[in-house]
Design brief:
about 230 residues, Rossmann fold, 7-stranded mixed β-sheet, 3-stranded antiparallel β-sheet
């Protein structure tokens, strides 16, 4: 039952600064019942924390120490089809890209990317961007098909629903609906294989949790309007 968060408000002019990502991520961190393992914000939040060691250029990944070392990790900041954006680019290139991630070969079950368009469908191209190699035990990637707004309370709403025993997917959908406008679409990618049942995942201690789909045979995508 381990939790990690990273957030960025200060983008050093590489992108527009944001205002609420610290409150958004901390709301999740402080409300979800479990062991808090790490919080890194602004200049202490790095893309390499989400990327596989040896992957990408430069090959600076360290997810085995951070994102893939906890059960759930929550990122709040800018996002795009290219990846999750960070304000510091001196350790890597400042973008955590799907092509540089192998998720769940450590401990991670659920990755939350609270940023724009990381899970944009694009007529099925979401599967090409993320692809099978990304899923190495991770159950879900939760995010947005469209842009998302700079809100301060989505994280706590998500945590509250998880604590109440909602499934992970339903908790994310409800948190998005309660915190976004109707022009926003949430999304998730979910992995399964014979012998797993991630559709019915709950937070640890709050209900059923599937075994890890280490070699998934099914990737399911869902998006819906807030």
């Amino acid at each position: 039952m381990t939790i990690g968060i990273e957030w960025v408000n200060n983008y050093h002019s590489s992108s527009s600064n944001l205002s609420n990502n610290d409150n958004n991520a901390r709301g999740f961190y402080n409300r979800l019942q479990g062991q808090r393992m790490f919080e890194y914000g602004d200049d202490l939040a790095w893309d390499q924390d989400f990327e596989e060691k040896g992957a990408g250029t430069p090959p600076a990944g360290g997810d085995q120490l951070y994102a893939d070392h906890v059960d759930i990790v929550f990122f709040s900041g800018h996002g795009s089809r290219s990846g999750a954006s960070f304000g510091v680019k001196t350790f890597d290139d400042g973008v955590a890209r799907a092509s540089n991630m192998l998720l769940g070969n450590g401990d991670l079950e659920w990755l939350v990317i609270d940023g724009c368009e990381m899970l944009a469908d694009d007529n099925g191209q979401v599967f090409s961007r993320w692809g099978w190699p990304t899923f190495r035990g991770v159950h879900y990637i939760l995010g947005f098909h469209t842009v998302a707004y700079d809100v301060k309370d989505r994280g706590e709403k998500f945590a509250d629903r998880l604590n109440q025993g909602w499934t992970v997917r339903e908790a994310w959908m409800r948190a998005c609906i309660e915190s976004e406008d109707a022009n926003v679409s949430y999304a998730y990618l979910r992995a399964d294989q014979p012998g797993t049942d991630t559709f019915n995942d709950h937070w640890h201690g709050k209900g059923f949790v599937s075994a890890d789909p280490r070699n998934p045979t099914v990737l399911c995508y869902l998006r819906g309007t807030c």
